[in-house]
Amino acid sequence: MKISKKVAGVEYAIRDIVLAARKVEEKGMKVDYLNIGDPVQFGFQPPDNVKEAMINAIRNGENFYSSSEGLKELRIEIAKKENVKGLSISHDDVLITNGVSEGLDMVISSIVEEGDEVLLPGPYYPPYASYVRLHGGIPVEFAVDLDNSTPDIEDIKSKITSKTIAICLISPNNPTGVVFNESSLKKLVEIANQHNLYIICDEIYDQIIFDQKFVGIGKVAGDSPVIVLNGFSKVHLMSGWRIGYIAFNQSSKLDALRENLPKLARVRIASNLPVQHAALESLRGPQGYITEFVSELKKRRDLVVKRLNEMPGLSCPNPKGAFYAFPKIEDNKFGTDKEFVQKLLETKGVLTVHGSGFGEKYGSGHFRLVYLPSLEILDSAMNKIEDFVS
Ligand SMILES: Cc1ncc(COP(=O)(O)O)c(C=O)c1O
């Protein structure tokens, strides 16, 4: 039967690689899964008050379709959160989605047409390129200095053409942990405005940050066409519940998008209502669990980065946020990063993701691992990687 070319080309390296791990397990080898960025699969859980909120919502009969834009109280709380970060919006500027993934799909579907170019930070979280391609667009990667966490402004300028319609930012970034500072964000907004580009900023890791204070795009947005994507999968440990949101800056340049994008929200009816009650509780309730989670992650990051940098042939910049390390393979006797990752899996049972899965241009020659497992498991995985590269 017929299958569309656009869907046949979709890839998601982070999950695709799991098939290879299953084969290794079938042969009887234990696999350390360092591929998936889901804190809940590594022992972290949403707090009880948040779980209770969802259970109570179900018990109280909140089991119907919510409004397409989402629960008003939740949108009010989200607007407050984003305003603390620097935006100046109301609940009317917030649309609840089934995860950032759905929000991204809606935004890209609404703006990209055949041949349009979208700038992405190199390397990037894969669905950004997938959704752009799905709609006939062309993802264009720009360089980022991973050691200094700065975007290469000259490189961005050189890549803007008459076809460029948007720039996507992911800060803190997956897979690199890069966090852009205020001055970089300011420069990015300036360039985008000069060229009339949408600015799409993914801040899903906004509170998972280790060495500096987080600055969101809202702080420097002014009246620029900024669209913030955010969600509850990472900071709030609700990955399996699938909830996120789109926040639109107050900008007349977003008028057409704001009129049209909600049609997509109506077509898909609504996002999960009991989960919206849980998300509301996660914003209103005590926030201590986030501090504990982040301080635990910092210990894991410090261990992993130290160990990786002591290994021959690997170098790893210090990730400033999120929960990923992205070491460079300085001397790869296997040729490609994909083969390196495959051999590491087959011989040592450590599952990572090849860097080129996050963009060929800047991701190649690296691999990504998550530092969500316990210190003991990470230490043992580091021993195996050290053995392998030695
Ligand atoms: C940068 C980034 N955005 C979005 C997502 C997915 O978000 P959600 O679970 O809200 O769909 C991820 C998950 O790894 C991510 O790393």
Description:
With 390 residues, the chain is of the alpha/beta class. The protein folds into two domains: 143 residues, Aspartate Aminotransferase, domain 1 (Alpha-Beta Complex), CATH 3.90.1150; 236 residues, 3-Layer(aba) Sandwich (Aspartate Aminotransferase, domain 2), CATH 3.40.640. The protein is 42% helix and 15% strand. The strands form five sheets. The chain has a seven-stranded mixed β-sheet, with helices on both faces. A hairpin with a 4-residue loop joins β5 and β6. It is globular. It starts with a helix and ends with a helix. The model has no long low-confidence stretch (mean pLDDT 96). Pyridoxal-5'-phosphate binds next to α6. Its EC number is 2.6.1.-. Keywords: Aminotransferase, Pyridoxal phosphate, Transferase. This is Aminotransferase. InterPro entries: Ala_Aminotransferase, Aminotransferase_I/II_large, NHTrfase_class1_PyrdxlP-BS, PyrdxlP-dep_Trfase, PyrdxlP-dep_Trfase_major, PyrdxlP-dep_Trfase_small. GO terms for molecular function: pyridoxal phosphate binding; transaminase activity.
List keywords for this structure.
390 residues; alpha/beta; Aspartate Aminotransferase, domain 1; Aspartate Aminotransferase, domain 2; 2 domains; seven-stranded mixed β-sheet; three-stranded antiparallel β-sheet; 15 helices; globular; binds pyridoxal-5'-phosphate; PyrdxlP-dep_Trfase_small
